[in-house]
Amino acid sequence: MNNTILIVFxxxxxxxxxxxxxxxxxxxxxxDFLLGGKKLPGWALxxxxxxxxxxxxxxxxFTGFVFxxxxxxxxxxxxxxxxxxxxxxxxxKRFMQETDKRKVLTLPDYLASNFKEKASLIRWVxxxxxxxxxxFYVGAQFAGAGKLFLxxxxxxPILGIIISTIVVIAIAFFGGFISVVWTDMVQSIMMLLTLCxxxxxxxxxxxNNDLSISHSLVSSGGSFNSWFGGATGxxxxxxxxxxxxxxxxxxGGQPQLSTRFMALKNEKEAKQATIVAIIWTIMAYTGAFxxxxxxxxxxxxxxxxxxxTILPVMIMDLMPPWIAGALLAGILAAIITTANSQLLVVTSxxxxxxxxxxxxxxxxxxQLVWTSKITIIxxxxxxxxxxxxxxxxxxxxxxxxxxxxxGTLSPAIxxxxxxxxxxxxxxxxxxxxxFVFTVLWISTPLDTIITSRFTTFFIAAIFGIxxxxxxxxxxxxxxx
Length: 480
Known about the structure:
Layout: H1 3-22, H2 30-35, H3 42-53, H4 56-69, H5 74-102, H6 107-114, H7 119-153, H8 157-208, H9 213-220, H10 233-244, H11 255-262, H12 267-298, H13 310-318, H14 321-358, H15 365-389, H16 394-418, H17 424-442, H18 452-470, H19 474-479
Helix pairs in contact: 1-8, 1-14, 3-8, 3-11, 3-12, 3-14, 4-12, 4-14, 4-16, 5-10, 5-11, 5-12, 6-7, 7-8, 7-14, 7-15, 7-16, 7-17, 8-12, 8-14, 8-15, 9-12, 13-14, 14-15, 16-17, 16-18, 17-18
């Protein structure tokens, strides 16, 4: 175990928990705890949204994916980047305006507020959908932390998972959304530092040691040096859609991201945040892609029993200990920011959508805050349990959660925004079909052919359209 790296990690934990505690001081209302009370600057929300959206899967999963696929991995980055840019340019301001208009605190509550006839049922099915998949998403983050601690300190992954769980719960518990956003902001900068600094160092290493990325791509396999993975015809279409399909999850359906849009104060802040988010995205994905390509030149394909440890291994190999500690902390930052936000999404859905709105329990503001804090603890422990018992890859688990939540709720959001004939029955059909279809699809070999990230979006959209036309809302009949 390298003592210098360990010291940097301990310092990182102290700083992050300290920021969470300092930003939580003062009396917090339920609205402050769940959505920041419209008090946060746009640039901080943009950093937070990006750190939350790009979790352990970007630094561990995506870099490992590029290492095992080569140039064709670019389409994952392209799909995600376009999805992020689209959401900030065309959806962020709309979310902000709708939140101000309807006085809602969560994504399920926003959907329910548009369809009051079956509002309670919508809150229930949306909350069940989010909580079910996000518990696995949180578990994937904690599993990523275990891999990081194993690689960095040869520490038992179980201990790494437990340490990360405690830190995540502590930050979210102290100050809710406000603490999470400010800690996200710091951690987002650390993530960007890791993704920008490492490829530069790696490229210098490749140059000084007479290595070649292009030659390594050729020698690694027939498809590594092809932008389309050597596929043609139908296979090319499948490869493109499977990799590009991350785009569909960014179209408003990820609650942990959309809440950042909902928390924006005004149009000026929204414009500022959009610029920050787009620049961050381009820099981060360029860096992650280059890290994967550089790893192909530096290491053989047989070098890793787990390709999702490539990034921390490269850092340890190429950087002096004190810099390595800071960059490795950037990976941990990605894990903690996403887990924090997802815990908060589950918490807000339980406390606001179910306990407060659907069940109608008459709780004081203070009691609602404490209900949220207790939910954070319980959800964190469940996520830790999943991480301790799951052997699935971080990339794969995140992909499934992305399908189940983003692929389901994105068409629901888009149709709510832009289609006046979307009905109460239609939105319920969207959510239920997306949930059921994702579970069934990933349980079969079909998911290895065409990913559920693509199919879920269109199945949920089709069900929503068909059921809206078959069972229109009464007010539409009256207009006719």
